[in-house]
Write a structure and sequence with these properties.
The complex is a heterodimer of chains A (318) and B (354). By secondary structure, chain A is an all-alpha fold. Chain A has a domain at 98-278: MetI-like fold (Orthogonal Bundle). Chain A is built from 14 helices and no strands. The mean pLDDT of chain A is 87. With 354 residues, chain B is an alpha/beta fold. In chain B, helix 4 crosses helix 5 and helix 5 packs across helix 7 (160-172). Chain B is 35% helix and 21% strand. Classes of the chains: A mainly alpha (318), B alpha/beta (354). At the A-B interface, helix 9, helix 10 and helix 14 of A face helix 2, helix 4 and helix 7 of B. Bound molecules: adenosine-5'-triphosphate (ATP) and magnesium ion. Magnesium ion (MG) binds next to helix 1 of chain B.
Chain lengths: 318, 354
């Protein structure tokens, strides 16, 4: 199977997946107790006022009818109007998406630059100081919650040293330097977690690969250590790491909610949280759908890269 | 014909260090591999065959170490050579290796063409184009049909037998003078096994390549080997020409081994299984390592003495007290042995005649 056939097959598979997600999220959102009208008007609103608003929003229709209404809108690119923010859901989501995307990309970039070399070094020098060092970084990374490390970073680098702003966000097109300075601490906070996972994976994968018989055969052929390690072992051991990185990449977009909250960044995670609390149905539905698309695309890209690196995989899929 | 052996192992000792103890997996192994011969190494599982094979090119597991002896090749001691020097001038160039499982010997993410040409370009100063041509030739030599078309295939696109041919092609691509094959046919079915053995024989006959063939299958040995070394618990207990191994085995272990194998078993004797099991190499028995299972213990030294030294009997060398006149009173009566000096002599003459 050629790679583009594989791509087409995978893209077609996306259609039923997203359809399923849309049904699931729609009914889940509507079955959760609590009314958007109450959220909008506050607890002291009168019964009539609530009924009136609910009627205006079309919430009295049977659920399947509401779903079909919403879904036909989605098909034409109209995700509806947000109840709690002013404006159409689609434009709100696009803005927030790019904010989060920047944070995720920066995190990924920094964490890969640290975790991959560190993981390789830890594998090559097992049980050496560098291995123990990377292990402690890893354990710290996964065990210290981001709300704690984030606050510590703010205290040290923003309040005490004054290198970076405490919180807030600047659009990159306005002032890229200010934007990056605002992003620095959130990126650092998220990187700590991301590094731990990718590094441990890189280490164990590299160790496993180095134990493979073909590594012994490569040495027996007289290949230089450098080619054995970086030509062969690295490529093989990086493949499972890509999958993990892909998962992280997909997950971080919405998983950054705590960090976005601490640093007051208007990202996707934070928006979803607000929308849920406000029972802002169209926004929640739109956001979940967007996240599902994002996750699927990242997954697809990951699989494409992996099968590109390891031709056996594509064959197995057929 | 020079009488200089191609490879000479002298008193080789290899030790694995684990958390709790040390295992001497190869102990006091001395043997000469002659030019142009196929030398078989047989023995039960765990007796140190793979360790011996891996030691020659110093490809032991990380916890394994050569703790004594020499590996003489071409006037050099491979045990003392630098890792870099070994890679540049010996591994894959002078001495090649083939491993047991062809399914795990090749890197799954590179084409076999890439894996062949990288070997060729590592050792020979040729252009990419020439390397590719040589790669096709190598595949052709080991009997891969339409080799030029298969160069860009990945290992998983070959069958097990073909994959082992590819591995052999890579090992032979720079015309080494010695090929070490560690159970190269174990994972393959019988008809493919025979083909691979034919291929090895062919290589040995048509090129100036000696072969060390490790196997636990005495049938394989009978088919293609010229001489055989029998290993037991880290020792090379007997080295004999293949005819001697089958018709007049010297070491009691070799004798018992033959009796336990159906295909080599003659009508004259019952099929028997060697009683007991091989010793734990962490604490090998005193004296001869085979004595707890041996039916021919001839003296106290077998049980409590030093490990027997190597005695030369005709064309064989044997590590057994039966061949020691001082320990075995019946020695002169039971054998037509010669003393060490002339034993050496006759071995040399035989090689000279070949
Ligand atoms: N890396 C290692 N660490 C510790 N002990 C080892 C290691 N590799 C091998 N051994 C031990 O050394 C001994 C010889 O092993 P080796 O693999 O050389 O035997 P073998 O004759 O090739 O066996 P088989 O026929 O099963 O392949 C065994 O007792 C084994 O347990
Ligand atoms: Mg073995």
């Amino acid at each position: 199977m050629e790679w583009y056939e594989y791509l087409i097959k995978r893209v077609l598979l996306l259609v039923p997946t997203l359809f399923g997600v849309s049904i699931f999220v729609f009914f889940l959102v509507h079955l959760v107790p609590g009314s958007p009208a109450v959220a909008m008007l506050g607890v002291r609103a009168t019964e009539e006022r609530i009924a009136e608003i609910e009627n205006d929003l079309g919430l009295n229709e049977p659920l399947p009818v509401q779903y079909i209404d919403w879904f036909t809108g989605v098909l034409t690119g109209d995700l509806g109007q947000s109840y709690s923010f002013n404006g159409p859901v689609s434009s709100i989501l696009v803005d927030r998406f790019f904010v989060s995307l920047e944070l995720v990309l920066l995190t990924l970039l920094v964490s890969l630059c640290v975790s991959i070399p560190l993981g390789i070094a830890a594998a090559l020098y097992k049980n050496s100081p560098i291995d123990y060092f990377s292990m402690s970084v890893g354990i710290t990374g996964v065990s210290v919650p981001t709300f704690f490390s984030g606050v510590v970073f703010i205290a040290i680098f923003a309040v005490w040293q004054g290198w970076f702003p405490v919180s807030g966000y600047v659009v990159p097109s306005e002032d890229i330097v200010a934007n990056l300075r605002h992003m620095a601490l959130p990126t650092l906070t998220m990187t700590l977690v991301a590094v731990a996972v990718a590094m441990r994976m890189m280490r164990s994968s590299m160790i496993e690969t180095l134990g493979e018989e073909y590594i012994r055969f490569l040495k027996a052929k007289g290949l230089r250590r450098r080619s054995v390690l970086f030509g062969h072992a690295l490529k093989n051991s990086f493949i499972p790491v890509i999958t993990v990185i892909g998962l992280q990449f997909g997950y971080m977009l919405s998983g950054a909610v705590v960090v976005e909250q601490i640093f007051a960044i208007p990202g996707l995670g934070r928006t979803v949280l607000q929308a849920v609390l406000q029972r802002d149905y169209p926004l929640v539905q739109g956001a979940v759908l967007l996240l599902a698309v994002w996750f699927s695309v990242v997954n697809l890209l990951t699989d494409l890269i992996v099968s590109f690196l390891n031709p056996r995989i594509m064959e197995e899929e057929t | 014909m020079s009488s200089e052996p191609r490879l000479s192992l002298q008193d080789l000792e290899v030790t694995y260090t684990t958390k709790h103890d040390e295992v001497t997996a190869v102990d006091g192994v001395s043997v000469d591999i002659q030019s142009d011969e196929i030398f078989g190494v047989v023995g039960e599982s765990g007796c140190g065959k793979s360790t011996l094979a891996n030691t020659i090119l110093r490809l032991l597991d990380d916890n394994g170490e050569i703790t004594g002896g020499e590996i003489r090749y071409n006037g050099r001691d491979l045990a003392e050579m630098s890792e870099k020097g070994l890679s540049r001038t010996v591994r894959g160039r002078e001495i090649s290796m083939v491993f047991q499982d062809p399914n795990t010997s090749l890197d799954p993410v590179y084409t076999i063409g890439q894996q062949l040409t990288e070997t060729i370009r590592q050792h020979l100063d040729v252009s990419k184009q020439e390397a590719r041509e040589r790669a096709v030739q190598s595949l052709d030599d080991v009997g891969i049909p339409s080799p030029a078309d298969r160069l860009d295939d990945y290992p998983h696109q070959f069958s097990g037998g073909m994959r082992q041919r590819v591995v052999i092609a890579i090992a032979l691509s720079c015309n080494p003078s010695l090929l070490i094959a560690d159970e190269p046919t174990t994972g393959l079915d019988v008809s493919i096994q025979a083909q691979i053995l034919d291929l090895l024989k062919d290589i040995n006959e048509n090129r100036d390549t000696s072969v060390v063939l490790i196997t636990h299958d005495l049938g394989v040995v009978a088919e293609i080997c010229d001489r055989v070394g029998v290993m037991y618990a880290g020792n090379l207990v007997e080295v004999s020409p293949v005819g001697v191994i089958y018709n007049d085995p010297k070491h009691p272990y070799t004798q018992d081994l033959l009796k336990s194998i159906p295909e080599t078993h003659d009508i004259k004797e019952e099929l028997t299984v060697i009683k007991g099991s091989p010793p734990d190499l962490r604490s090998p028995p005193s004296g001869c390592r085979y004595h707890p299972r041996c039916s021919k213990v001839c003296s106290e030294a077998c049980e409590t003495g030093e490990m027997p030294r190597v005695y030369h009997e005709g064309e064989s060398s044997v590590r057994c007290y039966i061949y020691d006149a001082a320990e075995n009173p019946e020695y002169e009566a039971t054998t037509n042995g010669t003393d060490e000096q002339s034993g050496e002599q006759s071995q040399q003459t035989k090689r000279g005649e070949q």
